[in-house]
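Q: For a teaching session next week I want to show students how multiple molecules come together into a single three-dimensional assembly. I've collected the sequence lines for a complex. Could you give me the predicted structure tokens for the whole thing so I can convert them for display?
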Amino acid sequence: MTENTEGPFGPRRYRAWNEHVKTRYGGRVQKVSIEAGFTCPNRDGLVGRGGCTFCNNDGFTPGYLNRQQSITAQIDAGLDFLERRYPGTDRYIAYFQSYSNTYGEFERLRALYEEALTHPKISGLAIGTRPDCLAPEVLAYLAQLAREHIIELEIGVESCNDAVLASVNRGHDFATSVDGITRAAALGLDVTAHLLLGLPGESMESMLDGARQMSALPIHALKLHQLQLVRGTALARAWQRDPSSVPLLDELACIAMLVDFIERLSPAILLQRIGSEVPPSMKLAPAWNLRLSELSPRISAELAHRGTWQGCRYVATGSA
Ligand code: SF4
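A: Of course. Below is the structure for the complete assembly, covering every listed component.
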């Protein structure tokens, strides 16, 4: 690669979500997390019990959120916090984040989504879910909403490797993700896929092959999370019993892996996240000194050091 070339994305060197949003919606868009009382088929017995071995939704629940309140009251409380923390935000979207937010009777889903959209300060919805919870009538309804609102469907893929998905008790395979993403995108929905990098059983080769497989799917954006062991999860307990059973990436290895991944990812895919941060009280390992806010500049710096950028090693294959 040429040392002094930034590539097509400027100094950041990857296709960043925030910059895309500012251009597309004319300003900053902030998500207001809400908890609508959903569960998940991998917990209630429909698909499995106990959930994914890495999952404890409390690890990603913001402090302002009170799940006992109505959707409207949760939005009001979230806005009260976010308007002080992020002044100058132009639009807000309600983020149905915890558990599987398309899992339920259609009329119940519709009532919850519409309550959020009725709030005068809410411009749209971000809806997180599993790929096996995408009933055709729900997708058709979301596609209809998307004609007038921002609708972002976040689908948890977590790994492209079936053996890894089985070992973390995910309860679905990669083909299910391909099917769900393809059906949603065919209706015109913007799909954000969610990958968790570093799960046990994943090799560097399989993670990097994930960049190829995600690039072949009709996704609008990708969220990358690195494995962190959250207290109360089966993986955390396994690590406490035997740390060698759950290998964890240190900061430098994680940055190198993310840069390798980004270089192989299609330049058309927006990166909505390139890491995550569990609250210290919830996190067991790995012990990093790096804060989430430092991760993005470090990745851009490593890309610059290599003289590379998102997609510079991307090879179009056409199939996941
Ligand atoms: S990660 Fe999602 S699918 Fe897995 S147990 Fe948690 S809520 Fe359910």
